[in-house]
Structures are given as C-alpha cells and as structure tokens.
Design a protein that fits this description.
The protein has 272 residues and is α/β, with parallel strands linked by helices. The protein has a single domain, classed as Spore Coat Polysaccharide Biosynthesis Protein SpsA, Chain A, CATH 3.90.550.10. Helix content is 32%, strand content 26%. The chain has 10 helices and 13 strands. Strands 5-4-1-6-11-8-12-10-9 form a 9-stranded mixed beta sheet, sandwiched between helices. A two-stranded antiparallel sheet has the order 2-3. Strands 7-13 form a two-stranded antiparallel sheet. A hairpin with a 2-residue loop joins strand 9 (153-161) and strand 10 (164-172). The longest helix is centred in the C-terminal third of the chain and has 17 residues, at 255-271. It is globular, with a radius of gyration of 18 Å. The relative contact order is 0.17. Bound molecules: uridine 5'-triphosphate.
Length: 272
C-alpha cells in the first residue's frame, strides 16, 4: 500500500538536553556524520515516497532549517522535494507543534517524523506504517525497558497479529507503576487529519502541554489507530550519548568511512 506524499517534521524544540550545543544552533541542525539530523529525516521521508515536507521551526533560529534546504544548489536526492516552513511561535510542546501546521496540512493524511530521531540504516519504518493502515492512523511502537516508561508515550494494546496490533489508547510518560504495556511510541507516525481535530479540542495534559499522545489516545479510543511494533530502536540525537552513537552507527554504514572508523574503534578497544 502506498503511503501519504506529505510529511510533517516538528523541529522547533528547545533541545535543552543538548545544551550548550543548542544555545544558538537548532537541535535539528546538529550534524551526524556529514549532514544535519533533519536532512537524514527528510531523506528517510523521500525514501518512503514523500514529495512534500512541512518543517515546524521556532521563531528565532528556526529559519536556518529553511535555509539548509532552500539556499544554494538543491541537496542530492532531495531535488524534487517541496519544502514548506511553519513557525511555532512559542515552544508549547510536540502536540502544539503538530497543531501549528494544521492549515498547511489541510485535509491530507501525513507521515510525522520527529527530527531528533534517526532510523538505523536499513531499518526504515514508514513503509510498514503505510502497509498497516486501514484508513485510520498508525503509530510506530517498540518494546522499551522499564526505566524508559517515564520517558515515552505508551500504548494500550488490543489484539495483536505478528508485529501489527490494534491500539486502544495511549498514556503519556506513565512510569512503571501506571504503564498499560511496554510498547513505547517512538517518533514515527502516519496520521489522518482526525489527529488535528483531536489536538484542537484537547485540554493541556502532562506537563501542562497539549500532548500528541493524548490526541493519539482520543483517536485510538474511537477505533481509529493501529500500531506496528519494530524490532530496532531509533537513534535519539536529543541526548549527548545518543548523538555519539548515531555518528558511529551512520558512519559505519557509509562505505567511504567504514574501514577507517572500524580501525579507529578497534584501536580504542586495544587501549582498554
Ligand atoms: P523533545 O521532547 O525532545 O523536546 O521534542 P525538545 O524541546 O526538543 O528537547 P529537550 O527536552 O528540551 O531536550 C520531541 C520533538 O518535538 C519537537 C522537537 O523538535 C523534537 O523533534 N518539538 C518539541 C517541537 O517542534 N516543538 C516543541 O514545542 C517541542
């Protein structure tokens, strides 16, 4: 099944966990190997058949994200990508960022990709989201460790067949005591416009913010959400260790760097 041709990439977060790197530079522009994180994400969207990306950026330095994609020669592989920018004037959280793009999205279904999560090489998840869709929304899930249950939105699982399941609801950062499962929402989604309607009608939730997880809960309780459980995690460049790991994993996947980087890592091993 073919997926949406539109992708939304929220990239307006403050990135406080990556300070001081993000004092001036947006988190989405931190480089991983030889290109910013947000370009890896745009390339992933294009691999899934996306022809238009809406980036949600912050009012201050967010325009640098637009410049990266629009100034100078077109980026290889992204020549035909239509790039649109929506400004989130206040950092009101992820749900608010998605809602900010409502007018630009209109009545289209769309993939949503968090700009601080990068897929591992060869482990794209968007095609499996499109394949699992029955006309409603689909969320990427992963089995997460107990200590992660206060860091992710967590799904209330229904009937499961293989890697696909009905999602009956979702809870934001429940913690181990209240978690309905160990299935975390990992930053890749296929949404119908229903999610925007749900977001528009939500009261602030966890942390006093409009939560995307609460909107997923809303559509899921109406039988309009499925999930796909992946077996590999995404690289989280929003924390320093994750950024380091992402550089190594993506560096090793590139033929021009593989030998030199492998040799370097082996030399470190010998030092221990
Ligand atoms: P995070 O939860 O990682 O928040 O955002 P953050 O503000 O970026 O980082 P910290 O917690 O301060 O270190 C998840 C995704 O949602 C986007 C971020 O850019 C990231 O891709 N986001 C978050 C927005 O677009 N706007 C917001 O107001 C908050």
């Amino acid at each position: 099944m073919t997926g949406p041709e539109l992708a939304l990439v929220p990239a307006a977060g403050l990135g406080t966990r990556m300070r001081p790197a993000t004092r001036v530079v947006p988190k989405a522009l931190l480089p991983v190997v030889d290109r910013p994180a947000v370009q890896h994400v745009a390339e992933e969207a294009v691999r899934a058949g996306v022809t238009e990306v809406i980036f949600v950026v912050d009012l201050g330095v967010g325009s640098l994200i637009r410049d990266h994609f629009t100034v100078g020669e077109p980026l290889p592989g992204l020549e035909n990508l239509k790039v649109r920018i929506v400004v989130q004037e206040e950092p009101g959280g992820l749900g608010h960022a998605v809602l900010t793009a409502r007018e630009s999205i209109g009545d289209r279904s769309f993939f949503c990709l968090l700009s601080d999560n990068i897929v591992r090489p060869g482990a794209d998840v968007l095609p499996s989201l499109a394949a699992a869709s029955d006309g409603g929304s689909v969320v990427a899930l992963r089995e997460v460790g107990e200590h992660m249950l206060d860091r992710y939105g967590v799904a209330i699982p229904g009937e499961r067949r293989g890697s696909e399941l009905e999602v009956l609801g979702a809870v934001e950062k429940p913690g181990i005591e209240n978690a309905p499962s160990n299935l975390g929402l990992v930053g890749r989604y296929l949404f119908t416009p229903e999610i925007l309607e749900a977001l528009a009608n939500l009261e602030p939730g966890y942390g006093g913010e409009i939560q995307l997880t609460d909107a997923i809960d809303f559509v899921a309780r109406r039988g309009r959400c499925r999930g796909v459980v992946g077996d590999s995690d995404l690289l989280d460049i929003g924390i320093p260790l994750g950024l380091l790991e992402a550089a190594v994993v993506l560096g090793l996947s590139r033929t021009e760097f593989r030998d030199g980087l492998t040799e370097f890592l082996r030399s470190l091993e010998e030092l221990r």
